[in-house]
Amino acid sequence: MEWCIIVDVNFVFGGILEMSYKLAIIGFGGMGNYHFDQIKERIPEIEVVGVFDVRQERLDYAKESGLKAYTSVDELIADKEVQIVLISTPNDFHAPLSIKCMRGGKNVVCEKPVTMNAPELEEVLKVSKETGKVFVVHQNRRWDKDYVIIKNILDNKLLGRAFYVENRVQGSKRSLEGWRGFKLNGGGMVYDWGIHLIDQTMWLIKSPVVDVQGHLARMFSTEVDDNFKAFLKFEDGTSALIEVSTNCFIPQARWHMMCEDGTAIVEDWECNGKMVRLSDDRDLGWEDQIVYTVAGPTRTMAPRPRETTEELSLPEVKSDWADYYKNVIAAIEGREELIVKPAESLRVMKVVDAIFESDKTGHSVACHI
Amino acid sequence: MEWCIIVDVNFVFGGILEMSYKLAIIGFGGMGNYHFDQIKERIPEIEVVGVFDVRQERLDYAKESGLKAYTSVDELIADKEVQIVLISTPNDFHAPLSIKCMRGGKNVVCEKPVTMNAPELEEVLKVSKETGKVFVVHQNRRWDKDYVIIKNILDNKLLGRAFYVENRVQGSKRSLEGWRGFKLNGGGMVYDWGIHLIDQTMWLIKSPVVDVQGHLARMFSTEVDDNFKAFLKFEDGTSALIEVSTNCFIPQARWHMMCEDGTAIVEDWECNGKMVRLSDDRDLGWEDQIVYTVAGPTRTMAPRPRETTEELSLPEVKSDWADYYKNVIAAIEGREELIVKPAESLRVMKVVDAIFESDKTGHSVACHI
Q1: Whole-prediction pTM
Q2: Chain B interface, mutation test: which of A207, A229, A364, A368, most B Cβ atoms within 10 Å?
Q3: ipTM of this predicted complex?
Q4: What value, to the nearest 5°, has the Cα angle with vertex A24 and ends A21 and A26?
């Protein structure tokens, strides 16, 4: 019996007491700070121990917060206690810093967009393989409730297979903060929100992307795309519209998904919305009758009798972003595969490359990603 | 003074008393009947005198309605009294019948889609030129109030230039009536509602189409597209999404248009909707602050202060479909150019061809239409 109790204690407290991972942050701006706060509050398995930033005021703030303030990346890497490095710098530094940290023996969590293009990411992944260090992108929006609802509807076949998906985030600020407005640093909406929506969409639809048409607009920025739409075709026949706007004053729904047996809408981040599903008694005969709408006669667009459909609430889902870091730890310990797999991040970067190429040539990019 | 009065009488009554045009209809189905009713009620300048249809019951109905019932197209053409022929047959008959009628000395009003493809239309237009007969497509949806509102907003620069336009008609009947389900007859949604929305969009944005990506779905039809989306890029940087669905149970707005200085939405055929326009005091500084939404932190998508925008009603517009036929008569009399110009109909057919080609190849079609 005593033996049993010892095992139990190890199981329950082991992770926290003995296995607390030490994490250091490179780039202590908005996102770096967000990770720090969130980890402190929600991930007992990880302790943030130090920070490197090029700005003295951020290092001062780190010290005030009880963290080590490294004066260089080398000093951070030399800190033997650190097992995980979070990289949350401007985007153009992600690849070189990730490589440097892995070669220095650290596991790496990297903010998105992971790199500036797919070939750069391939270099990074090569180093992950060589060194055996875990490398994972912070695609945290896979845990967003609106997305989890949409994924739940598809995965559980609540409305049958999807054929048109629209995945949008529309704002109206007409401005990009700091380096997010600079081309050199990987600014613009494709790299920013876009990469989240692309990752979500590709994790939703399990089929290769075969055509990418990007339409990037520069409404107020002189350097980068401040609004974009991309239209992805998947091999299985699904198509997805992905949109990120900063110049939209009447937002559309966060998600609109048309499936064979019904339609789902998620209006906003609060996840207002509904599903409308065909009843079993779904087939309508043609009455040889034209319906006269305000806009003239139509047969095809005449309304469907209400009793042939049913309106349903969106499914209840649970989602906890803390599971992201728990999975990173499990992967470091070899207990689980990464949820955000390197191969998936590479596919996302290839689609990003195709969007930029499509913008340059003005035409869609045939591919098999 | 007497002289003046005589001129006045001629001006007011001349068109009706002396110049009443005689029109015959080939294809007396739903649309043929619609033209008959509408002309009788709203176009005093035109009198429908006869009908040809392959179905005896439709000829019987024509006779009951006081019309001549021709037993062949040749008999119709031989009727010297007839100056205009309306062709409202299944789509595959449009081109040969149009050519036959013009060679027989008739002016032709042709239902949409005017032909099955652009080369066919070029043949038809050649005959129009040779014979000097007016040939015009019934793109009546240029007179739809929802469209006229959107066009008014752009033409009067109420929101500046457009960059993203979405033009949709979504129904849920999941069935196509009669020949509209057959490939041979030019069935499917691209040819049906699609061609209206393409025509509207191309008449809205005055720039060549440079890329066309079509995504055709066959959700219940085995022959033709029963749902489609097309994404058009225009040379001036505008992009347009055109969608016609018959398998959508939660409809989106009829129109959503993002412009440089604001956004417009027309919800439905009743033209509910609004505009939101930037105020003069539009520039927001960046406060170094992250906004915490339900879906996590974001700077870029933080809401804009209300006082930097103003909400406006959609413009009041007047539109009368009768102007279509009045313009046809004015064109026959050489007083006006056609509103629905043959060159515009040809551009629309070329975009339709590109949509079908894109569906076949799976990739977008680079063009300059």
Answers
A1: 0.91
A2: A364
A3: 0.90
A4: 150
